[in-house]
Design goal:
Elements: H1 19-32, H2 43-72, E1 76-80, H3 90-97, H4 100-109, H5 114-118, H6 130-144, E2 149-154, E3 162-166, E4 169-173, E5 186-197, E6 200-204, E7 212-216, E8 219-231, E9 238-248, H7 254-258, H8 267-274, H9 286-314, H10 321-324, E10 325-330, H11 336-348, H12 353-363, E11 364-367, E12 378-380, H13 381-387, H14 389-409, H15 414-420, E13 423-424, E14 430-432, H16 433-439, E15 443-446, H17 449-457, H18 461-466, E16 471-473, H19 480-486, H20 489-499, H21 520-545, E17 554-559, H22 568-584, E18 593-598, H23 606-623, E19 632-636, H24 642-651, E20 654-657, H25 669-675, E21 679-682, H26 688-695, E22 701-702, H27 707-715, H28 720-725, H29 728-739, H30 751-759, H31 765-783, H32 786-798, H33 805-817
Parallel strand pairs: 1-2, 1-10, 2-9, 10-11, 11-15, 15-16, 17-18, 17-20, 18-19, 20-21, 21-22
Antiparallel strand pairs: 3-4, 5-8, 6-7, 8-9, 12-14, 13-14
Helix pairs in contact: 1-2, 1-4, 3-19, 6-33, 9-11, 11-12, 11-14, 13-14, 20-21, 21-24, 21-32, 22-23, 22-29, 29-30
């Protein structure tokens, strides 16, 4: 044990929260940290100065939290995730510190408007969708419920991409969130680790000695840490998000540079920097696959070296590792950590295989986020072996142990044994990262009750048979601080006025709101806040896109990653069918509706990008047709991120959660919308099942096939053409799309998309269409009775407290991590 923090050193006295003191400190930071006089300071200068003042107060609590862990020898949780979609941090940090009114007053006294400078903070481009946002919510909740934790990931320079539209097509541009630095982060140059790739493995030792294996990488880079503090509610604890950036061992090859090869001289630097430039580089090429695997190993190896170093600072050896450390793998991206921990324990710290394996599987736990076999990740054996030769040996050794044990158990036949193997021998041999994560973890959790049961029956059925106690459920949650208090201050104020402040510390106290669902005065106030939030979104759409929206219309919103199983296509086709009906039956009393979409498609996902183009083409036609009389509008808002979600979620009247049943693991957007008083239209998929149980079947609109019915229909080789021809609305809508009504410049643009529905309809768009349209007309009927509508949506807000990420984290801590 060495280098222990001196926990007995006194901490600074608490800093003042008086507005006049805060204002003085902001001026001081502006002058001495930024070098600007208040008279010439620009809004971005005020933003940075304000962040630095807030940060100082966080640091005091951060250091106290760290010292408390060392003092008590508390167990630490390490959350490994390729994504952390944390969004903007300033408002969140101020809110959790309880300083919002004081900071506003301080800035007002200086002639600065808080909301103006807060809007300048860039979104941290560290994630893509629900998996990354869940990681961010979990980090905040771990601090809130007092779990000592680190989050580990990559400090992406450009993140996923910045989405723009060119004639309705998605265009990917680099995100530049770090262009002007990041005042929230701290460079930790002392936390730097060497990461290797390629090379060969040498065996040391003769016949009488236990052989030792020495990996000699052909390439090496340095991983260096950047720390961001994560503040819990009321600043009870401040945890750490540690992100890795890559640096070359030799930044420039001077001989090559001086010889005139200026590009070649920077080859090593460019290769290193590529590791931390882009989230999810396209993997359609061998080079793209290799970069992804390099990224995953890079951050996993750095994180594990850091974890082991910290453990040895405090404890004598690694026998106590599972008792003092819990490592949670967020999906299969960090699964290579299992092989890397084995390597570090065996090759670096001289444990034998059995000791290392016992420590490893008791330390790791794994969260699965998908039932799609192709999304579980697998790597070609030649690529894995070339890039990580020692880890390939370890994977084979683990595999031998697992398969021998399975054979000895006499529980499994040959086909089942082949399915649990870490190596897929069908076709090109591949390393199955999902199987590695499962076998190397003591706990494997799903993220909704339905998803967990389906996991036992589908992707991990045979592994569940071998290890029947490992799979458990931990339904996802969202932090109510970000997704209610921060993004919807109007509703938060009304709730405090009506039911008191208890819900701010315990989201389940929102149940007290149930008593007001039929109160006319409360309904009117609730509706007024929703209308104000819709006006904010309308202003944003007008400013960014030049489209005018009527806030009195129903705002029908679907925001999520663009993917065929999430069925934005079903929503668009229904919009086309509704468009036809409004024009054909103008005498009917149609409900005014705005269909809003946002989300990004993976750069190499052709059909997803085509769906975005279809949404924009349909919008162009419908929005400009005077026959519609403004009763229907379609809007696709580009560059979906956390900050845009914080505006769209409180403005939603209707939440679209319409994935093909059995394919959405959980969803968290559904929870955010319902918490903010939206009615959900959805399938019985993911967490929708549990939401129905909590909010009541009368307060959610369910349609379509169940997961069992989808599986049965697929197994029976359905005839989508017959289904389409029996639905007049569907057949007409598909004919219009396929024939070029919405794409006059290219009549065949969407023919292939429509043909996919006619020929196989894997995502059950045709199969569920009529049920979906009936559900939408049911929504219209409820909307036409405002008292009924708002009674239902108020009950949604009242009954969503169980879906707090605080509850999720307490379950993880008690049942998986044994922490806190």
């Amino acid at each position: 044990m060495n280098n222990l923090p001196k926990a007995d050193l006194p901490l600074p006295a608490p800093r003042s929260s008086q507005p006049e003191v805060l204002a003085e400190e902001i001026i001081e930071r502006l002058t001495y940290r930024i070098g600007k006089d208040a008279q010439v300071a620009k809004p971005h200068d005020w933003l940075t100065a304000t962040i630095l003042v807030i940060r100082d107060r966080i640091i005091d609590k951060w250091m106290a939290s760290t010292k408390q862990v060392y003092k008590t020898n508390a167990k630490r949780v390490y959350y490994l995730s390729l994504e952390f979609l944390i969004g903007r941090l300033m408002r969140d940090a101020i809110n959790n510190l309880g300083l919002m009114s004081e900071i506003r007053d301080a800035l007002t006294s200086l002639g600065v408007e808080f909301d103006v400078i807060a809007g300048l903070e860039p979104d941290a481009a560290l994630g893509n969708g629900g998996l990354g946002r869940l990681a961010a919510c979990f980090m905040e909740s771990m601090a809130t419920v007092d779990i000592p934790a680190y989050g580990y990931g990559i400090r992406y320079m450009h993140g996923l991409f910045r989405q723009q539209m060119a004639d309705g097509w998605q265009v990917e541009l680099p995100e530049t969130w770090l262009a002007h630095g990041n005042p929230w982060e701290f460079e930790r140059r002392e936390s730097s680790y060497e990461i290797g790739f390629g090379g060969a493995v040498e065996t040391v030792g003769g016949y009488d000695d236990t052989p030792r294996y020495v990996w000699k990488p052909a390439e090496r880079v340095i991983a260096m840490a950047y720390d961001t503090p994560v503040v819990g509610w009321r600043a009870k604890r401040v945890n750490t998000l540690r992100l890795w950036t890559a640096q070359p061992i030799d930044p420039i090859l001077l001989d090559a540079f001086n010889a005139g090869d200026h590009i070649g001289a920077l080859r090593e630097s460019n290769k290193a920097e590529a590791l931390a430039r882009v989230l999810y580089p396209a993997d359609a090429t061998p080079a793209g696959q290799e970069l992804r695997l390099r990224q995953e190993f890079f951050f996993c190896s750095a994180s594990l070296q850091d974890i082991l170093r910290r453990h040895l600072q405090q404890y004598e050896d690694f026998t106590s590792l599972p008792d003092k450390v819990s490592i949670q793998l967020n999906d299969t991206h960090p699964a290579v950590s299992i092989a890397e921990l084995m390597r570090l324990l065996i090759d670096v710290h001289n444990l034998d295989f059995e000791q290392a394996w016992d420590i490893t599987w008791r330390t790791f736990s794994y969260t699965n986020h998908t039932l799609l076999p192709e999304a579980l990740e697998s790597w070609p054996v030649p690529l894995f072996e070339r890039l990580l030769p020692r880890h390939m040996q370890i994977v084979y050794a683990i595999n031998a142990k697992i398969l021998v044990d399975a054979r000895k158990s006499k529980m499994m036949n040959d086909a089942e044994i082949r399915s649990i193997s870490l190596i897929d021998e069908n076709g090109d041999r591949r390393v199955r990262m999902g199987n590695l994560a499962f076998t190397g973890s003591h706990s494997i959790n799903g993220v909704s009750a339905l998803h967990t049961e389906l996991m036992k029956e589908t992707v991990f059925a045979d592994l569940h048979k071998l290890y029947p106690t490992r799979i458990n459920n931990k339904t996802n949650g969202i932090t109510p601080r970000r997704w209610l208090m921060q993004c919807n201050p109007g509703l938060t104020g009304l709730l405090r006025e009506t039911i008191g402040d208890a819900f701010m510390d315990d989201a389940e106290a929102l149940k007290a709101l149930d008593a007001y669902a039929d109160n006319a005065d409360f309904r009117a106030k609730f509706a007024a806040i929703k209308r104000a939030n819709k006006q904010v979104l309308s202003n944003l759409v007008a400013q960014r896109m030049g489209i005018r929206l009527d806030p009195s219309a129903m705002f029908d919103i679907q925001i999520k990653r663009i993917h065929e199983y999430k069925r934005q296509l079903l929503n668009i086709i229904e919009a086309v069918a509704l468009y036809d009906q409004i024009r054909s039956r103008p005498e009917l009393d149609w409900v005014p509706r705005v269909k809003l979409f946002a989300g990004k498609a993976a750069p190499s996902y052709h059909n997803a990008k085509l769906i975005i183009k279809l949404a924009n083409d349909v919008a162009r036609v419908i929005n400009n047709d005077p026959a519609v009389r403004g009763l229907l509008k379609v809007v696709f808002i580009p560059n979906y991120n956390v900050s845009l979600a914080e505006i769209m979620v409180p403005a939603a009247d209707l939440s679209e959660q319409i994935s093909t049943a059995g394919m959405e693991a959980s969803g968290t957007g559904n929870m955010k919308f319902a918490l903010n008083g939206a009615l959900t239209i959805g399938t019985l998929d993911g967490a929708n099942v549990e939401m129905r149980d909590h909010v009541g079947a009368d307060n959610i609109v369910i349609f379509g096939m169940t997961a069992d019915e989808v599986a049965r229909v697929r197994s029976e080789t359905p005839n989508p053409r017959a289904t389409i021809e029996n639905s007049r609305e569907l057949s007409q809508a598909l004919a219009a799309i396929a024939s070029g009504v919405f794409s006059p410049d290219d009549r065949n643009r969407f023919a292939g998309l429509v043909d996919g529905i006619y020929t196989h309809d894997w995502f059950m768009v045709a199969a569920d269409f009529d049920s979906y349209t009936r559900a939408q007309r049911e929504v219209d009927a409820i909307w036409s009775e405002p008292e009924r509508w708002y009674s239902k949506t108020i009950r949604n807000t009242a009954r969503m407290g169980w879906f707090s990420s605080d509850r999720s984290i307490r379950q993880y801590a008690k049942e998986i991590w044994r922490a806190g």
